[in-house]
Specification:
By secondary structure, this protein is of the alpha+beta class. The protein has 6 domains: 6-86, no CATH class; 93-211, PAS domain (Beta-Lactamase, 2-Layer Sandwich); 220-394, GAF domain (Beta-Lactamase), CATH 3.30.450; 408-502, PAS domain (Beta-Lactamase), CATH 3.30.450; 526-567 and 765-879, Rossmann fold, CATH 3.40.50.2300; 590-748, Histidine kinase-like ATPase, C-terminal domain (Heat Shock Protein 90), CATH 3.30.565. It has 25 helices and 31 strands. The termini are far apart.
């Protein structure tokens, strides 16, 4: 170290050697000599210090560390032994560090990352402000720490191994570790470390770390939530299968215990007759308790208290709980904390679902909501099983509740899906793997994508409101979805998590409901005014006819009356069509073979539509028998034939076809207004101009027509709609512009019996009847119509007595001693039903003939009773 030979040192006086030969080599000669020689003043004093050797001939610049201690025994007892250690490398490293720190101090000190410099022996040489603030140490406190001191035991092995690898020259990237704060807390960090070398020797390691504690926590919460959603999806799916309830209960308690990480979970089923709850499924309980042990349903236990609460019941410490005690089941297992929820509605509880721990724990609101959702799934499953049992007992042949859709769950980050569950993928027809990384806008209907982009941008800044959107599936189908979402942090970035519900069927049903309500409202209005219209038309037609009978056809007034007669006939026909639409026209329902009817009617159809249209008849090889009114079915066919004719102005082909079909649940899933069973399908297809979607939506609306005003009233298809509905059937329409239209009518089928009718009977010509003095009692509250009936009957040889109400009619009947051949009465009278009047008259004279009439077409006409009793009936308007 000093460039001296052994002989120049050994045997020399210490003070003389230091003064003459050694001290001059040091940067501070006198200071060095004073420190070295001072050790001899007290043999028990151990001295160590650093000293700087200046460069010179034959020697290098060095930093030495001096140690001196007395020799207490042996040959050199009473002397001292001195050690000099070369610490030049360390001093140079420290000098380099000081220079570096001076250069980058401000940058490193103010950076957000946690930065520290660590000596090769693990001592912490430097930490920046972010490091000190995060871990809670001062600068002085950190200088007394080592890397091992601030590393959490969970991370020491791999973190210190990474440190040793860094000292060997390897750059360590993306290392994660847990550090310990001064208060004992944990900080999760991720970063890198590398080593600074001087003269090929490691000087210090520079460690740069990011605090990812919150990010890790958010990820854990997200993963926790995803596990909850996965458990809910699995339970919801299983609840909709044929799984036994007990198996579902056992699956539920297992998934709840795993998801919430609790020791105990139970399902308690309410036994109302016993004021108790039975442990039907559980996890963690002593063997033999499940299926046997019962707890009270009173409010003095947690389970009983839950039955009376509309919200989840959370217990932090059962030992200090004031609201209730126990039940004993929990006390026996030393339960401390827990949460329980009601299964079913508070007003109709089915049981209690609970989760508990033997250590103190504060259950979060999210965990309580998760538990309540599981309970809701169980409640729905219990109700569904009950409904299935009821349906099997009452019907036997129908399936029970159909499988309802579960919500799809997704996480959208940066406009792309980073997580989707199976249900979400099923809704859109993909696999989950196909959707990861896919742009969410691609699942939106093309017409709505611009709006969707704007809403997505607003959602990221202001939050997401529940909304209904049109989607597009993998195979190109359009669906409706309800989306409920919220903003979250996902892996440190802003993202959207949400639920998607397939509401396509609901939207279709809403559209059909609006249409049905509109049609029903028009029907009620039509039926309501029909009575008054029929009375007025009857009077107009009757008096016109009476007047025409007294005039010759060449009389100028006869022509005017003929116009009135024709107009009144058209008005009567219009009312009749409206009544068909409103399903208020009385129908003579009898077994009817459509094949026979169509064979008879086909000639009429050909004459009606003209020679430029080819009519093809394709009939099922077996009878197509329905319970129907022949006249009404003829009306349907004729209206559709006329509609087809007008759609083929240049000619074309009309095909009428019958077919016996079986409707199953797959069909009803596509057409919700249909129902399963045996049906006759009557289809009428043309090759005409077709219809677009806008026209298709309105074709059954009364008075809607695409024809000119003088070419049609717009009631033809409305009448078809009303008649088909009145026969318990429905209509499907398919049409494409330029291709043609097909109307498929489904009517309930009857088994062939051989006793059927075909077409309606032709009307017989009006005979010139002679009343021959028959006595007729006419009861009608409408003055004009009563007067017409009196004149018409009187003019044909009948003796007529008239009355405006039932009371007056009874008085006339009694006054005349019951001397009447016929009573002709309105069904609806001011003071009593016409049917009641008839019953009273028949009790006095059973052989009395009865003819009833009404302008009403709803329940007031009492048509079913009239038909049941076999009374003759004349529908207004009549002539």
């Amino acid at each position: 170290f000093f460039g001296l030979k052994r002989g120049e040192v050994v045997g020399r006086d210490k003070r003389q050697l230091v003064s003459e030969r050694i001290k001059c080599m040091f940067e501070d000669p006198d200071g060095f000599a004073a420190k070295v020689l001072a050790t001899y003043d007290n043999n028990t004093y151990i001295e160590n210090f650093e000293c700087h050797v200046l460069p010179g001939p034959g020697k290098e610049e060095r930093w030495l560390e001096h140690w001196s201690q007395p020799i207490e025994s042996g040959l050199y007892a009473g002397g001292r032994i001195e050690h000099y250690y070369d610490i030049t490398g360390r001093k140079r490293a420290e000098e380099a560090l000081r220079e570096s720190e001076e250069r980058y101090y401000d940058l490193i000190e103010n950076i957000g990352d946690l930065v520290m410099s660590v000596a090769p022996d693990g001592r912490i040489l430097y930490v920046n402000r972010a490091w000190r603030e995060t871990l809670g140490y001062s600068r002085e406190e950190s200088s007394r720490l080592s890397l091992l001191d601030v590393t959490h035991p969970n991370s020491r092995t791999h973190f210190m191994e990474s440190f040793r690898r860094a000292l060997s020259g390897e750059r360590i990237d993306a290392i994660e570790a847990e550090l310990v704060t001064k208060s004992g807390g944990k900080v999760v960090v991720r970063g890198n470390m590398n080593c600074k070398f001087i003269n090929d020797e490691p000087a210090y390691a520079r460690v740069v770390l990011n605090d990812i504690t919150e990010q890790k926590q958010a990820k854990r919460e997200l993963e926790y939530y995803a596990r909850q959603q996965q458990a809910l999806a699995e339970l919801g799916h299983m609840a909709l299968t044929d799984i036994e309830l007990q198996a579902l209960f056992e699956l539920a308690v297992d998934r709840v215990a795993r998801t919430l990480e609790v020791e105990y979970c139970e399902i308690l089923r309410l036994l109302p007759q016993e004021n108790a709850l039975l442990l039907v499924a559980g996890v963690g309980w002593k063997e033999g308790l499940v299926g046997r042990v019962k707890v009270g349903s009173g409010r003095d236990s947690q389970a009983g208290y839950t039955l009376l609460s509309s919200e989840p019941v959370v217990v932090r410490d059962l030992n200090t709980e004031k609201r209730f005690r126990g039940p004993q089941l929990l006390l026996d297992h030393k339960v401390v904390s827990g949460v329980s929820v009601i299964i079913g509605e508070p007003e109709n509880p089915l049981g209690v679902l609970g989760a508990h721990t033997a250590t103190y724990r504060e259950f979060s609101e999210n965990e309580a909501v998760f538990l309540q959702t599981v309970a809701n799934i169980l409640a729905e499953a219990i109700k569904r099983r009950k409904a299935e049992e009821d349906l099997r007992e009452s019907e036997g042949k129908y399936r029970t509740l159909t499988e309802s859709s579960l919500s799809g769950v997704f996480i959208n980050r940066g406009g792309k899906y980073v997580f989707v569950n199976n249900r979400f993928a099923q809704i859109y027809g993909y696999t989950p793997e196909e959707l990861i990384g896919k742009d969410c806008i691609e699942l939106v209907h093309p017409d709505d994508r611009e709006t969707a982009r704007q809403r997505l941008s607003e959602a990221l800044s202001r939050g997401f409101e529940p909304q209904e959107v049109r989607g597009i599936t993998k195979d190109g189908r359009t669906i409706w979805c309800e989306v409920v979402a919220t903003r979250i942090r996902y892996e440190g970035e802003l993202a959207i998590m949400g639920n998607v519900f397939d509401i396509t069927e609901r939207k279709n049903l809403e559209r059909q409901l609006i249409q049905a309500q509109k049609m029903e409202a028009i029907g009620r209005l039509t039926a309501g005014i029909a009575h008054d219209f029929n009375n007025m038309i009857s009077a107009i037609r009757g008096f016109t006819e009476l007047s025409m009978m007294h005039l010759g056809k060449k009389d100028p007034i006869y022509a005017n009356l003929k116009h009135i007669w024709d107009a009144s006939n058209r008005a009567a026909d219009l009312v009749r069509k409206l009544l068909y639409f409103s399903r208020s026209q009385p129908l003579e329902m009898r077994p009817l073979d459509l094949n026979v009817l169509l064979k008879d009617l086909c000639k009429v159809v050909r004459r009606l539509i003209g020679e430029d249209i080819t009519v093809s008849l394709e009939l099922d090889t077996t009878p197509c028998v329905i319970q129907g009114d022949a006249g009404s079915i003829e009306q349907v066919i004729m209206n559709l034939a006329v509609n087809a004719r007008d759609a083929m102005p240049q000619g074309g082909e009309l095909t009428i076809k019958t077919e016996n079909v079986r409707i199953d649940e797959n069909y009803t899933g596509t057409y919700p207004y249909a129902r399963p069973g045996e049906f006759v399908c009557l289809s009428v297809a043309d090759t005409g101009i077709g219809m677009d979607d806008e026209v298709l939506r309105r074709i059954f609306d009364p008075f809607f027509t695409t024809k000119k005003s003088e070419e049609g009233t717009g009631l033809g298809l409305s009448v078809v709609y009303g008649i088909v509905k009145g026969h318990g059937g429905w209509i499907n329409v398919e049409s494409e512009p330029g291709v043609g239209s097909t109307f498929r009518i489904y009517l309930p089928a009857l088994p062939p019996t051989g006793e059927t009718v075909s077409r309606t009977q032709d009307k017989v010509p009006l005979l010139d009847f002679d009343g021959k003095g028959w006595r007729v009692l006419v009861v009608e509250d409408d003055d004009g119509l009563r007067e017409f009936a009196k004149r018409a009957l009187s003019g044909h040889g009948y003796v007529v007595f008239e009355s405006a109400n039932a009371k007056e009619a009874m008085a006339i009947f009694e006054r005349e001693g019951g001397n009447f051949h016929l009573v002709f009465t309105d069904v609806v009278l001011p003071d009593k039903s016409g049917l009641q009047l008839v019953e009273d008259l028949l009790s006095s004279k059973p052989e009395l003939c009865v003819l009833l009439s009404s302008g009403y077409t709803d329940h007031r006409s009492q048509w079913p009773v009239i038909r049941e009793k076999g009374f003759e009936f004349l529908q207004k308007p009549f002539t």
